[in-house]
Amino acid sequence: xxxxxxxxxxxxxxxxxxxxxxxxxxxxxxxxxxxxxxxxxxxxxxxxxxxxxxxxxxxxxxxxxxxxxxxxxxxxxxxxxxxxxxxxxxxxxxxxxxxxxxxxxxxxxxxxxxxxxxxxxxxxxxxxxxxxxxxxxxxxxxxxxxxxxxxxxxxxxxxxxxxxxxxxxxxxxxxxxxxxxxxxxxxxxxxxxxxxxxxxxxxxxx
Length: 206
Known about the structure:
Blueprint: H1 3-17, H2 23-30, E1 35-40, E2 55-62, H3 65-78, E3 82-86, E4 99-105, H4 114-124, E5 125-136, H5 142-158, H6 168-174, E6 177-186, E7 195-203
Parallel strand pairs: 1-2, 1-4, 2-3, 4-5
Antiparallel strand pairs: 5-7, 6-7
């Protein structure tokens, strides 16, 4: 990581993701998690207050030490049993079939190799486990999608690698997931940033 990524970007990400309009989405996604939960891209811990009593413990993974320090403080304030791990989603340091559920909120866009990360998530999920997610990605409208593709190379440089043009449902299926509930919609804000994929998925039986 360079100076910007280590010291500036974490604060900017925390500020951006603290928008109150995202709270209902967080509650919908994190509120469904249960048992032993792995949160990919735990960031500054903004989901900790959204987990329900059915959650035993949250294992939070993030590559940023500074964001993990923020998350540690928020876990304590929320009274959540949390184990925070610095690492990459593409090489999860956990045994096969050990997680009851996995949570991702606006994370897959910035993972360098999304297919590798999703395959790792599938590996660590129990056979009946579930992935709960909300992500932004490629819009169905041609004009919006064209702008997403044009802007992604520049946007990646200032946003920690965020891609505007990933088609989340197709990535999930390519990684070996069976799609469950899937809600597609534009949220409030510029359309190139706010086409949301929200739902659940489970490892397929193949």
